[in-house]
Amino acid sequence: MFLADQNNLTSARPHAPPRPPGLDFEGRQVWVTGAGRGIGYQAAMAFRQLGARVIGIDRCFDSELGSMHGKKYPFKTVQLDITDRAAIDKACSQLLLETPRVDVLVNAAGVLRLGRLENTSAEDWQACFDINVGGVFHILSRLLPQFKAQRFGSIVNVASNAAHVPRLNMVAYCASKSALVSLSHCAGLELAQYGVRCNLVSPGSTDTPMLRSMLPDEEGMQRTIAGLPELFKLGIPLRKIATAREIANTIVFLASDLASHITMQDLVVDGGATLAA
Q: Choosing from 41, 73, 173, 194, which is the catalytic residue?
């Protein structure tokens, strides 16, 4: 991993080593949804470490995470329900009034509802689409005029390798993440002529609160690594679960100048699990 662990961060960074070329986000405006925990939190921390002015957006923020930094997240936090179009309009208008630019937008907010086709409720189906797809649609459509006007920017949407391979007990999640992939590609095509890039990161099994809710013990983690043939799921060739920081590093790369000629791509980060399936 090319970024330091979150516990080594300091707000002033008086003795920080030189940043790799193309990875300097000093002074750039970065918005991250789902920043309260998991991948979104790690992405926000990674950009903050690289000098960005980060705005973390989430429905709620974990006081325990905040307490690691003096009971306060080391970036600006905005409580927002991304399924509420009116609230998004109001929040975006206020944030753009304060700083009229967005260099990087990361859509990492997501929800998982388990169930097979026969027993997935309409409510669980709708929740997956409202958050995993609808929330991204609302924010993208609201910020589209801003990106077009400024004629620069990078968007990174967090999908899942579940958009690429079928999974038992995950019909709503898989379908919503597949829809997000298509939405992202369409947005990238529309924005390309304005110099705005739009890419996807599709993680596999990653050690986040979402995964822990499915696999609460180490035995479950090891079975996932080894493979679950009864669920038509092969293992992870790299023999480990990803960390949220590893996914954040990929997000940072796609948002950075190192990826300046990459757009409309979907980078699967799953230790080889998809190609091994």
A: 173
pLDDT beneath 70: ranges in the chain: 1-21, 63-71, 211-217, 219-233, 276-277
Kind of pairing, strands 227-228 and 104-107? unpaired
Any catalytic annotation for residue 173?
Answer: yes
pLDDT for position 212:
67
Q: What is the DSSP string of 158-227?
A: E--GGGTS--TTBHHHHHHHHHHHHHHHHHHHHHGGGTEEEEEEEE-SEESHHHHHH--SHHHHHHHHHE
The alpha carbon torsion through 202, 169, 138, 36 (nearest 10 deg) reads -70
pLDDT in tens, 114-152: 999 999 999 999 999 999 999 999 999 999 999 999 999
